[in-house]
Amino acid sequence: MGGRESSDEAYVLDLCDEVLGEQGLRQHRFEWLLGDAGSAGRKTRLPVDSYWPEQRLVVEYRELQHDKAMPFFDKPGHPTVSGVDRGEQRALYDARRDAEIPAHGLCLLVIRPADLDANSRGRLHRRNRVADLDSVRGLLAAAPSAVTESTSRASWTSDEDRVVDAFRRWLVAEGWTPVAPTDPYTDIEAVRGNQRLIGEAKGRTKEPGTDADIAYGQLLRRMTDQSSDTRYALVVPSSSMFHALRVPLPVRSLLRISVFEVTDDGSVRMREA
């Protein structure tokens, strides 16, 4: 078998079409989902595997090369426009899809070979249609609805969650891609080109001064990368700004720490003084 029409991806998306009762838009490109700029400075739109507008649903079928190193696909030693090999770029672009698709109010469902009747190499050569259709039906039924501000708000368990959620949305709008933190205790981490941002967030508390000092200490412990491309963010609500700005600006600049204010209405702005 060869070609996209007979690929495992096409097979899985056909099953999704059958369950949903309509045909999705294959290889759809959104204006806001962009790759990194090439030598000419232009960014191309990244495709998604399939998009169902009425369902506000995007499905990505991610084969094994999306989750493990595979030299045949990754082509190590041959940098892409992102400055990394294809494997690292694939992971970067997958993370960008994971962040931006929900941030734009759409549901993202990622299906992997392990979800279906795949062999040890992750191939769907058996095409066990009855079993695979049942698996896809279950995955689609369990998929979360499109992310909206109200559903996001319902998931907040603390004011810190509100602050982190607002800052994540702001990062996406500014071209950053939130990624899984290198340190599991980091509140938020994001990349943009060669830049990396590591953030510590605090919500409204009874001891805003103490909590701001603790947050600075937590950022200091995260400073294991000496690269000037790595910066740090202290993200706090408006009620904590006085305490966050007590550390003088020259010191914050030396430590590569920026302070961000999250207002009561969810707006975000960087503050120097």
Structural class given helices, strands, pairing?
Answer: alpha/beta
Placed side by side, the strands forming the largest sheet appear as 5-6-7-8-9-10
Radius of gyration: 21 Å
Overall, the morphology is elongated
For the record, the count of structural domains works out to 2
Low-confidence spans: pLDDT under 50, at least 5 residues?
none
**Average pLDDT over all residues:** 85
Percentage of residues assigned to helices: 25-40%
Q: How far is it from the N-terminal to the C-terminal residue, by CA?
A: 63 Å
Count of runs of 4 or more consecutive helical residues: 9
CATH topology descriptor of the largest domain:
Endonuclease, Chain A
Which second-level CATH architecture of the largest domain applies? 3-Layer(aba) Sandwich
Total number of β-strand segments? Answer: 10
* Secondary-structure element series: HEEEHHEHHHEEEHEHHEE
The CATH class label of the largest domain is Alpha Beta
Strand content range: 15-25%
